[in-house]
Fold Thioredoxin.
Amino acid sequence: MSTVAVTDDTFDAEVKNSDIPVVVDFWAEWCGPCKQIGPALEELASEYGGKVKIAKVDVDNNPNAAAAMGVRGIPALFIFKDGQVVSNRAGAAPKAALQSWIDESI
């Protein structure tokens, strides 16, 4: 399984109404730290398979979802479980740190 591109229009269906936990990465093409964590998130999406969905929201093309979540800087990561935010963090981190954060939160 790979990361899922989520838009303003699909945010509720893909994230809030998901039957599995969802990690949402708010990012932009021009963001260096976002590009740093991109490959790690792709790997984690494969490793978690159907247990955790990893969604990516491009803030330039989908400003409403980012605004609704109060995103002020990117990358901004949120974990949703049963439609609610259970954890969030900002900034880039190594894959191992991201993985332990996800494991602790779900």
Remarks:
- Residues 4-101 form a domain with the Glutaredoxin fold (CATH 3.40.30.10).
